[in-house]
Amino acid sequence: MKILLTNDDGIMAAGIRALAAELRAAGHLIYVIAPDSERSAASHSISLRKDIPVKKIAANEWAVGGTPVDCSVIALQKIITEPIDLVISGINAGQNMGEDVLYSGTVAAAVEASLMGNKAIAISINSYSNQKFEVAAQWMRKMLDMGFHNLAKSHQVLNVNIPNLDSKQIKGIRLTKTGHRKYYNFIKVTEESGDDFSYRIGGDLPVWNTDHGTDAEAVTEGYISITPLGFDLTNGEAFPDILEWLETNKLLKLES
User: Fold this and answer.
1) pLDDT band (50, 70, 90) for residue 186
2) What is the C-alpha to C-alpha distance for residues 155 and 233, in angstroms, rounded to an integer?
């Protein structure tokens, strides 16, 4: 297959390097088009009102001076001139489960590719240190060999989270829903002067709600999690209450 790899950890990050090596060894044609430096938590931001530099650093590899979404856009509208079979974003250094999918540049790059009509997968590993990227890359290769990419649809992302375990310790794969998490001590004040201060966002490690069927439960129990993410942003369940309010206040049809 012809596969585009991108991420939010940067083009030289260990995760994307391990995945590129594994998929090339499997015979796939790989393009690596990713940020020139780390852009974690960039979410779905794009760069406006400035030039975005792009540098070719090796055969089929380009470093982009922008966000992960910028990378998907420039890759699919400029650099790669023929249709591709699949976009994979990752392997991210750290999980993308629960609400983290809203912050994640890794997930956002896959989302943008999907919104442009491509099959897209986001893949992350559940650890911030000592990650077993080769294991995660091997599992991604196995899943593609079994036709996992055929499950991907446009306007949908298959979000994969892999436990940071040796391959033989991984128990299997579960189909999951997005769970929930809570960060405590989310900000750290680094400097104060009177009423003014500086701070950093980070804090403690997240505490996961491991409800049955969630991504967090699966990964905690040693399973790979697959969560299909969709992008219909309209909450239809809210319609009845809003319509009732409009009718009560005679706002559905204003008198002339």
Assistant:
1) confident
2) 12
